[in-house]
Structures are given as structure tokens and as C-alpha cells.
Amino acid sequence: MTAYGRETIGLDPNAGATLRILLINPNTMPEMTDLLVQVVTPHLPAGATLVPATGRFGAQYIASRSAGVVAAHAALDAYAEHGEGCDAIYLACFGDPGLFALRELARVPVIGMAEASCHAAAAKAARFSIVTGGERWGPILNEFVAMLGLGDRLAAVETVAPTGADIARDPDGSIALLAEACRRTADRDGAGAVILGGAGLAGLAARVQPHVDIPVLCSVETGTAAVLAALKHAPAKPESGDFALPAAVDSTGLSAPLARLLARL
């Protein structure tokens, strides 16, 4: 865990300055950012506000390893452009592209949606599953969960054919499909909790839950709770990131804010 330098942040609206949370959507769909803001905002206490940022380049919706690599760059670019003065960063994209690089650069808490959701699910059940859209996500998420040290707790990654973007465009038509996937992994794989993973599935867990006998977690809402916990319980500004900062380097072809950020490390 990072040790930060200031007093612990309180969420009391009478305590002082407004808390600013940079919400990064490294997908390039502004409507996906709008959905995230719509789902996250009701969970924010008074005295906290979102600074939403959409990926400036890359895939409209991440559904492959190659798109994820580009999205990691887009996440760093968004932080360099919009991160000044923010008290926390919420990487609101399942798979957390660029998470550890952001933690290397940022001097505030950085929360990844997928990492936070997996830890929350593991706290609820001995074994958990992930349900998400897009068939290529299966091996990617298996590797990601193993990297978190939770591989033996993952019952399955259950993918459905529609991508997260498809589900976001037709949430009403996706509830039955998602509920069936949750029931299937509970019965077949012994999952005791399931994560609905992905920005495109934001807010749907509450609608799926009545059709499923095990806890269903919304990755977006779970990540939001982790951001607020970090703000409430962790001091605010570190002397350095989670890792030793690398030496400053010259760059070619990057946005001016990102090039300046890397140059002053």
C-alpha cells in the first residue's frame, strides 16, 4: 500500500475543499463515459465530484489484448491531461489497462475497477466468477486474476457473445442473458458470488440479482466503493508512487501533457 503524506481525507462536506475524482474511461465512446457518470454519481457523498475523461484515441470499446494495450496509453494520456488537482483516480474499465503505470506516475490513490471487484468478490465467497461480454475476455481475465494472486479463488470467466458495448446499447434485452450466465456458473462451477464486469454492464447487477441465488456485484459500483474507501482511510498525497519513479526520459510523438509528465519524473 502507498504511504501518503497529508492528513487522512475525510468525506465530511463541512471539512473543507471538494474532493475531485478523476474517472478515466479509456474506451473512446463518450456515451460510455456518460453511463459511468450516471451510475457512479449517486454513490458519491457530498463534497466529492467527478472529473470524467474519455480516451482520446483507440478502440471504441476494448474487446481484445491489442485494444487493451492502446487503452493503457490512452489512460496515461488522460491522466496527464486531466489529473492535476485530483485526489484519486478511478480507472473505470474492466481489465484495468494501464493500472500499474498510473500508480507509478500518480501521487494519489489509483483504483482499478477489475482489481477492486475481484477483491470484493473474494471477500464475499470462497470462489467467485466473472460474467462479461465479449468472448476474447476469457483468457485475458484468467491471467489478470492470477496476477492478483486470486487465481485459485476464480471459479470461471463466463463470457456472453454480445460485447459490453452491445449490452450498453440494449440493457433491457440483456438481463435474461446475463442472469442465465450467472446461474450457469453458480451451478456448474460452484461460484458463490459473481461479478458483472465491464463499463457497458454498469448498473445492471441490481436488475440481474432477483434472478440469481448468489450475490451479483456491479464492477462499476464496487470500484466506486473502493475509491471512496481509499479517500476516507488513506492519506492523500504521496511523496512518490507505489514504485520507485523511473528516470526522466525524452519522448517522441506523445501528447504534450504526457511528454511533460514523463520528462519531469
Automatic annotation (TrEMBL):
Signal peptide: none annotated. Pfam families: Asp_Glu_race. It comes from the Bacteria. GO terms for molecular function: amino-acid racemase activity. InterPro entries: Asp/Glu/hydantoin_racemase, Hydantoin_racemase-like, Iso_Racemase_Enz_sf. Transmembrane segments: none annotated. Belongs to the HyuE racemase family. This is Asp/Glu/hydantoin racemase. It comes from Bosea lathyri.
